[in-house]
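General statements about sequence and structure are easier to judge against a single worked case. In the encoding step, the backbone of a single protein was reduced to a row of integers, each denoting a local shape. The record that follows shows the chain in one-letter code together with its fold in token form.
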Amino acid sequence: MSGEQPTAPKARSLRRALLLGSLLIFLDAFCLNSGGIALLVGLWVLVIGLPLTFLAKKFATVRRQRLRDIAIYIAAVIVVFVFNAANNAIAKRRADVLVSAVKAFHTKNQRYPKSLEELVPDYVERIPVTKYTLVFNQFYYRPYSPHPVLFYVEFPPFGRPTYSFARDEWTYLD
């Protein structure tokens, strides 16, 4: 046994790397919109995958394929972060529109709306989704008198920007 050479790892297919990168983008950008999975994948690739590719002799024969896969995974991580940042900027702009609509409603009616639906169609055409994701894509309005708030989820499960109409400012709920 001691005289046997370790077998070289088998090269992984380009299709597999593209599929995993696409899955990462779908899950972490279009579903969760958190960036948590992408952060872990990026750290794993940079801290473990890249050094192993260059330092482990058994990977010398498949180094080019591993570097290609690493590039695909890093590109997917970047796409997730760019998409999440763009989505959160969209959410903030839409939230500001709703805040203005609630304030206008309050000025005209001397009360806050009981729900966001009261703003339609006089103040907004429709209640928008916060961002283009499958979950965590709603605005939440709590008409608690005398301090109503509007919030949405920026980074699930926490990271909820909250607008206090009593204080006239944005804060984070958690």
